[in-house]
């Protein structure tokens, strides 16, 4: 009986040790990613994007450029195959689809809160407290790959991969809860583009329809009995 008890204690101790070691590795990866994100206050790069379904079928391919100024300002400009602008001016999120001549605008914080974009655009994101993070080995010594999953139950993504070359973010891959995967590769990266103070302002053209979603939540709340 004593032998069985001692074996059980040893197994339990080993299990706890492995769990603690695993948590320490996750915490180290989270702190390492946090430091890399702190170095990105502004960013400009060309991108190519591909979206695949759960059967690995390509649903959409596009390319353009991405500009970022923390906090909460960015321009995601699709050039090919259809022109589209997504602009965050710090308070609003504008989406301008030029082919159908339509603009949608929504409140920025509500639009980004549960998306991967919050990690790049918010002034401060506590990676350690809000995400499970693991560092994944790569075949290149100069690249670092992180895998993230949100601790929030209402997160819109299941898994996020972020790949860095030195301090430069060179790729993202987002897997959502519907089985779709979005892969983005960045090139021509500039971490100090020097944007003008009004670079992220957006003024809708007079002849374009604007669908304003900013007050829908408040209006819906008023209509409830």
UniProtKB/TrEMBL annotation:
Keywords: Chaperone, Lipoprotein, Periplasm, Protein transport, Signal, Transport. It holds the Pfam family LolA. InterPro entries: LolA/LolB/LppX (IPR029046), OM_lipoprot_carrier_LolA-like (IPR004564), OM_lipoprot_carrier_LolA_Pbac (IPR018323). It comes from the Bacteria. Its main location: periplasm. Residues 1-27 form the signal peptide. One of its GO terms (biological process) is lipoprotein localization to outer membrane. It is found in: Periplasm. The keyword Protein transport applies. The keyword Secreted does not apply. GO terms for cellular component: periplasmic space. NCBIfam families: lolA. Monomer. PANTHER family: OUTER-MEMBRANE LIPOPROTEIN CARRIER PROTEIN. Belongs to the LolA family. Participates in the translocation of lipoproteins from the inner membrane to the outer membrane. Only forms a complex with a lipoprotein if the residue after the N-terminal Cys is not an aspartate (The Asp acts as a targeting signal to indicate that the lipoprotein should stay in the inner membrane). This is Outer-membrane lipoprotein carrier protein. It comes from Kangiella geojedonensis. The gene is lolA.
């Amino acid at each position: 009986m004593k032998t069985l008890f001692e074996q059980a204690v040893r197994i339990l101790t080993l299990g706890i040790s492995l769990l603690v070691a695993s948590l320490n590795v996750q915490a180290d990866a989270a702190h390492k990613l946090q430091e890399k994100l702190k170095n990105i206050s502004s960013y400009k790069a060309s991108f190519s994007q591909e979206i695949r379904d759960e059967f690995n079928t390509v649903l959409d391919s596009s390319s353009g450029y991405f500009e970022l100024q923390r906090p909460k300002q960015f321009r995601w400009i699709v050039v090919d195959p259809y022109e589209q602008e997504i602009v965050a001016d710090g308070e609003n999120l504008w989406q301008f689809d030029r082919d159908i001549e339509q603009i949608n605008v929504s409140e920025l914080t509500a639009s980004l809160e549960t998306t991967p974009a919050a990690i790049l655009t918010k002034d401060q994101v506590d990676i350690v407290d809000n995400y499970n993070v693991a560092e994944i080995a790569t075949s290149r010594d100069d690249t670092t790959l992180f895998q993230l999953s949100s601790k929030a139950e209402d997160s819109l993504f299941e898994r996020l991969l972020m790949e860095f070359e030195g301090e430069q973010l060179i790729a993202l891959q987002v897997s959502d809860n519907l089985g779709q995967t979005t892969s983005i590769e960045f090139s021509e990266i500039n971490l100090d583009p020097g944007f003008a103070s009004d670079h992220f302002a957006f003024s809708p053209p007079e002849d374009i329809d604007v669908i304003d979603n900013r007050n829908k939540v408040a209006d819906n709340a008023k209509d409830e009995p």
